[in-house]
Here is the input.
Amino acid sequence: MTGSARPTGAAEVFEQAAASYDRTGVSFFGPFGAELVRRADIRPGERVLDVGCGRGAVLFPAAQATGPTGHVTGIDLAPAMVALTAEDVTRAGLTHVDVRVDDAQQPDFPPGSFDAVLAGLVVFLLPQPRQALRAYARLLRPSGRLVISTFGVQDPAFVAATDALAAHLPADQARPTRPAGPFDDEQAISATMDGAGLAVTSIVEHRVESRFDDVDHWMRWMWSHGGRALLRHLPQDRLPAATADAAEALAAARAPGGGLRLTTEIRITVAVPAGPPDA
Here is the structure.
């Protein structure tokens, strides 16, 4: 995709969310990105690719880890996301970081370009995640590693609230039942990586508690990321009732001192090249 092309599908969702993405005062992407980089064991001087970089939750910790003797490239399919993150990079004076429009499904770099490829909460959004992993494996140097994060167990209150919103979708927008996926559990992740020519060295769980002032704050947060994919299909006249039902579902997450608390679990997988990937 070129910078002049109009994003579609998931890219369009994140293009529309770019200005508020990770900017609603909720601790979520930042802690997850920092933990992914910590698990990646990035060393000074290394070359790193951050696929689906968003607003830099992984990019900036990676840049700190490589130091000025290394280099970090962030790619995203949403031009607005890239433009805003590039501005943040410039303001921070990070001359060893660049951000560009490119497709996380098939990054356009020569084989063996990177010591580490990082993908924070993005691979499962891609149309063909297994093919993407094969592409990442080709980009790694022989001693390189791929580090991805995927969702684990979700807070029951969050699941109930999103189900409450989805119940107000028009019939032609109803969410289909999700089949078993390549990242559903550790066994599935290991098998998926193996099929991409990668050997898993570790899978760890990491949890973050996110706090919200109230249901309106939660809804602003939902609009600011992939949750927009659901919300944008809700008719305007159904939003008040949908929000009220979500608030009822979130009652279980109310904190003693006020507000809401939701806990999200992710799995961080580290894998290394294991030989030629499957065809």
